[in-house]
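Reading a protein record of the kind used here takes only a little practice. Think of the row as the fold of the chain written in a discrete alphabet. A record is reproduced here so that you can trace the correspondence yourselves:
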Amino acid sequence: MLSVVQTKVFDISSDGGNPCPLVLNSDSLTNKQMQSIASYYGVETAFILQPESRNALFRLRYFVPKHEMEMCVHATVGAVSYWCQSHEIKQLNGTVETALGEIAVNAQEKDGRLNVIVEQFPPTFSNENPSPSEVAQALKISEEELDLSVGPIQSVSTSRPKLMIPLRSHEILHNLDPDFGLLWELCDRYQTTGFYPFTLTTQSSKYDVEARQFPKRAGYNEDPATGVAACALGAYLTYYSKLQEPKEGWYEYLIGQGYAMGKPSMIKAASYISKEGSITKTRVGGYATILQTENIDINLII
């Protein structure tokens, strides 16, 4: 039997957040078994293994129903939250092993909840991106509903690339009904892992930005809270709004996501501008809720 801890990450209400099953003691599982378990749950699933480095807390592998991923921030937040809870720790600085290497994590109790921050990488900005007309066609909107005064349509990566798409209003964002076949085709053509349309004209004044995430062939069409995309968006906004007159320091953005799905979520992303005027560090984080632990028979899933 396998022990699986159910979590919700970046949740701000009982129906919000991004679910993530954490499969404990996964070292004996094969790739096929991990993929089958993720398909069984139908969401991003994290597998916790013994670390190869003595310095790391544990090793993580991430699967969506259709494939393995190199990085999943919300699963990392969930796993670190569970690790701290099970070890009765309220403050932590450490690292977690992933396919992208060791990732620094920080946890600090705040207002009775554990806030977990996951370090990412300096951003990379793609020079090959779909045109406004291609994106508008995939999202089934007019080009006039794009807001290119904020910045261009551009794929940005702080760990995995996501296509940043500025929109004029939260109404446009909320009403999106994409042509997913065309959306995935554009993802393939321009080597990005999903669309991240966003707006600075938010419905809620507590957010700097509101966004939605449509991943490429993940086994579901929309994600309620996406740390990888939010971190890339933070770097994008810092690059296009702060680097004209750069000042050294962290620039933070509170991002709302999941509202169109009825799963309200909140993510905090930040980018650091160095003395030389470039973005050298990025991070993203938030809270997780640990729900319950269940036991599953792997033989009933395969």
Remarks:
- The radius of gyration is 19 Å.
